[in-house]
């Protein structure tokens, strides 16, 4: 039996992306022996697509051929889901329901990527840690798994995501928690710009990005910097007044003829020797002290404060006596010449009343020894259980470290390596950090108390630093 209708479609298949326009030419041949009026309907289109046919009706005499042009516009927003659609070009008679023909046309709709990342709040101000809520949205037309990451230009921020990845169908969104940690600045506010990425697991797919700012308050309040600046200005003015007076007195002294060599001997020769450090006092014998009091030293007296003493070992490591400074609250750079800085870090463990305690101090231990401990800025006896940070900085990375606590088995040490890995050491020692690129900083804190006991004070009597090999 001869079909009364013949239909062909060009092109026979199509590839497109959301928002594109497609054109199909549908050729119809009237194979019947009567005049027919044919209409066209395009089936199986994605939701939101629009269709226009020109002309709307083809009037054909027997054995006559006509062409209907179909223009299809695919939606942009929301985009239709990616995949393969089978369209049907259905041509049928307007007057006879039994006369129709449908030709299938495959349509491949490409996937589009539209990943957005937004952080709330955009700016977090804090100490060593900060927290953001992320809104990740998939505005594309394909399901995707997104892996989350965050970086800063200095690579000093350590991010942690909960969860670390999200699965998003097209047109959906999800939330994630971003926690960040970074070393505290010493005396100036630090703004760290974060770039947050959500990367699809598809090869070559573009990642969605967002930004956030982490503002860190300094370890030492700005008022201490102001006091230091005022002190320096006062010292400069005093020097400007004293130096001319000394020059005048020296000129007058030179004009006089010396009468007696012994009478004109430098006054510094009669000055008493400088006071020994605590460590030196405990090691000196009584006879040596007596002889020192009888014979004046020829070296001039020094008014500089004592600095930490250090002794080198055979393997290049240095033993630093932390009790060689103080007593009282220390300046932020008290140990700078030994290659590290020390401060309290209240952001890691909450201690009531010590939220702003960022100082360290030298205090007397139960046995009378001087120890280095965390403290508040105005009272060395307060906030001694706040964790202590020992920061080596980028220019003085430690290759090994061993801390000597005042009381054994009361502290633990979290080690942050240069390769951004971490580990907790209960023995307060790292033998070799070269495999991690060196030690960035360590955080010393009390061990978890048991049985309701109060946490131990963070108190150190010594530190050994080894070079990075």
Automatic annotation (TrEMBL):
Biased composition (Low complexity): 277-302
Transmembrane domains' residue ranges: 227-248
Gene3D superfamilies: Immunoglobulins
Stretches the record annotates as Disordered: 254-320
Top-level lineage group: Bacteria
UniProt KW keywords: Membrane, Transmembrane, Transmembrane helix
InterPro entries in the cross-refs: Ig-like_fold
Protein name stated in the entry: Uncharacterized protein
GO BP of this protein: carbohydrate metabolic process
């Amino acid at each position: 039996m001869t079909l009364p209708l013949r239909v062909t479609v060009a092109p026979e298949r199509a590839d497109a992306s959301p928002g594109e326009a497609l054109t199909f030419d549908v050729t119809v041949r009237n194979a019947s022996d009567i005049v027919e009026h044919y209409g066209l309907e395009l089936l199986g289109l994605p939701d939101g697509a629009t269709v226009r046919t020109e002309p709307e009706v083809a009037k054909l005499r027997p054995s006559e051929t006509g062409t209907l042009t179909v223009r299809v516009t695919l939606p942009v927003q929301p985009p239709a889901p990616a995949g393969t659609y089978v369209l049907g070009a259905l041509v049928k008679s307007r007057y006879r329901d039994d006369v129709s023909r449908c030709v299938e046309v495959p349509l491949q709709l490409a996937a589009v990527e539209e990943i957005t990342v937004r952080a709330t709040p955009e700016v977090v101000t804090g100490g060593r840690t900060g927290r953001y809520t992320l809104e990740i949205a998939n505005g594309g037309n394909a399901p995707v798994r997104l892996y989350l990451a965050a970086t800063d230009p200095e690579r000093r921020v350590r991010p942690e995501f909960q969860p670390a990845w999200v699965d998003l169908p097209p047109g959906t969104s999800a939330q994630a928690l971003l926690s960040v940690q970074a070393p505290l600045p010493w005396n100036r506010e630090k703004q760290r710009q974060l770039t947050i990425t959500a990367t699809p697991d598809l090869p070559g797919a573009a990642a969605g990005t967002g930004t956030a700012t982490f503002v860190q308050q300094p370890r030492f309040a700005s008022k201490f910097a102001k006091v230091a600046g005022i002190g320096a200005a006062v010292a400069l003015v005093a020097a400007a007044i004293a130096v001319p007076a000394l020059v005048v007195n020296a000129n007058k002294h030179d004009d006089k003829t010396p009468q007696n060599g012994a009478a004109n001997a430098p006054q510094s020769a009669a000055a008493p020797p400088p006071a020994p450090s605590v460590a030196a006092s405990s090691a000196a014998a009584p006879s040596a002290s007596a002889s020192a009091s009888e014979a004046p030293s020829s070296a001039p007296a020094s008014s500089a404060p004592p600095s930490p003493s250090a002794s080198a070992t055979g393997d290049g490591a240095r033993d630093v006596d932390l009790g060689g400074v103080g007593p009282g609250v220390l300046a932020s750079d008290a140990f700078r010449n030994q290659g590290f800085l020390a401060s309290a870090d209240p952001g890691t463990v909450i201690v009531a009343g010590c939220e702003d305690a960022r100082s360290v101090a030298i205090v007397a231990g139960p046995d009378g020894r001087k120890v280095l401990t965390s403290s508040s800025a105005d009272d060395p006896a307060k906030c001694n259980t706040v964790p202590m940070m020992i920061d080596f900085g980028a220019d003085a990375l430690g290759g090994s470290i061993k801390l000597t606590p005042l009381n054994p088995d009361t502290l633990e040490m979290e080690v942050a390596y240069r390769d951004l890995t971490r580990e907790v050491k209960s023995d307060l020692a790292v033998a070799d950090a070269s495999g991690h690129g060196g030690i960035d900083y360590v955080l010393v804190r009390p061990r978890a108390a048991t049985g309701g006991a109060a946490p131990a004070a963070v108190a150190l009597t010594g530190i050994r630093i080894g070079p990075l090999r």
